[in-house]
Amino acid sequence: MQFVDEARFVVRAGRGGDGSVSFNREKYKPRGGPDGGRGGDGGSVIFRATEDLQTLEQYAHRNLIRADRGRHGSGNNRAGEGGGDVVVEVPVGTLIYDEQGLLADLADAGEEVVVAKGGLGGRGNSSFATSTRRAPAFRERGLPGEEREIRLELRVLSDVGLVGLPNAGKSSLLSALSAARPKVGDYPFTTLTPGLGVVDDKTYREPFVVADIPGLISGASEGRGLGNRFLRHVARARLLALVLDAAEDPEGAEGTLRAELYAAGLGDRPLITVLNKVDTLDEELRDYLRDQFPNAVQVSALTGEGVPELRDLLERRLRALSEREIAVAAVAREHRTFRPTWSGMRVEKMGEHAYEVSGEEIERLALRTDWENPEGVENFQRELERKGVVAALRRAGAAAGDEVRIGEVGFDFS
User: What is the mean pLDDT of residues 34-53?
Assistant: First the structure.
């Protein structure tokens, strides 16, 4: 399966079912009255994190994901069946964005978020019966479900991120540290997708995950090379290991790596320095590097030299990280579970004889109205008067015959 860490598509929740206009016609019940049931609510689109997926490949070519609509109500006060929800499973570590920004960060298995809420079903005519209105012959229409464009971004979750220039030997080091078997060879090659390996040893309290991050080049923070893809995956790691090729200008490589991490806002991340490929050096060069990098660990992923010591050091550093350091290292998580919507009313003059009324409650009323039913239209007009919309239009200068628009609905003012 191809590794894909970004996908974009539209999610559409189900529309609510319409209410029913019905009257009880049973024998011996001449005054059975209205018994139209309400429509069912539309289904929602829900995203859930799972450890069974490691890529967004299955969503790379999707254009639309939609939930079922609610069924219409019927007589005898029978409510319509609700539309089924659609649960979209994504890998742990997936960030969900919409047009307004970050919607949710699913960093834990089983975590879920509703990204498009289904529309409410409309009420049947039995809901409008009162002591003075015994036989209402109108109903409400169901509301449309939410629709938005979603962008998914996968960030690999790991305890340690191996950071280095292309061909620094990160994949070989991952293989030496863990049971992972990434593609490696004695030829110019760079990792194109993150690789994960679990370091599990009886001497450790808990296993930890090491990620081989795609090779970084100068200017990555500005989008060069793999650019943001590198930064996206390294941002999740609690601890960074700068892997330097000991035989190829390690001082310059370290400067490039630190500069790019700093430019990306990751300069304060806990890190250690690892000098790889020391098997190609003589003792004099090794002594020189000990002086230049006094805190670095010298290893050879090829021969295994220094790998056990590095494994122990990583485990100690991870154990020593305080809760505060872990919180700083983790990506800031946010759930926009509540989007406040202005629920008042505003009347604006759009032209010489045109007016627009906006407001959540008024717009919902217009969407719910059955415009083909005269009684439904009369009820809409009564509600406009009761809510003060008619008076507000008159104060704004509206006269009989002027065009009034509420959301997607237009009509002549009278």
Answer: 93
